[in-house]
Design goal:
- It comes from Clostridium senegalense.
- Keywords: Membrane, Transmembrane, Transmembrane helix.
- This is DUF6199 domain-containing protein.
- The protein is built from 3 helices and no strands.
- The chain is elongated and about 50 Å long.
- By secondary structure, the protein is mostly helical.
- The protein has one domain.
- The termini are close together.
C-alpha cells in the first residue's frame, strides 16, 4: 500500500508536466531552447506543435492507464 502511495506521488509531477505540454505546446517546445536564437522571432512549425501535443496526450493517457492498472492490481 505504501508503494502505491509513493508511486502516485511520483506520478503527479509527471502528469502536471504533460498537462502543461498539452495546454501550452509552443512554450514547452521552446523551453530551454530560447538561448539558441539571436532574435526573438522564433516560432515552431504547426506540424511540430501538433506532433508535440499528440505525443503529450498519448503519454498522458498511458501514464493514467498505468496508474489505474496499478490501483487495481495492488
Amino acid at each position: 500500500m505504501v508503494e502505491l502511495i509513493i508511486g502516485f506521488l511520483c506520478m503527479v509531477p509527471i502528469i502536471g508536466i504533460l498537462i502543461y505540454n498539452v495546454v501550452y505546446p509552443r512554450e514547452s517546445i521552446l523551453y530551454d531552447n530560447k538561448w539558441r536564437f539571436e532574435n526573438f522571432n522564433f516560432e515552431p512549425s504547426k506540424d511540430a506543435i501538433k506532433h508535440h501535443r499528440c505525443m503529450s496526450i498519448l503519454v498522458l493517457g498511458f501514464t493514467i492507464f498505468i496508474m489505474i492498472l496499478l490501483l487495481f492490481i495492488i
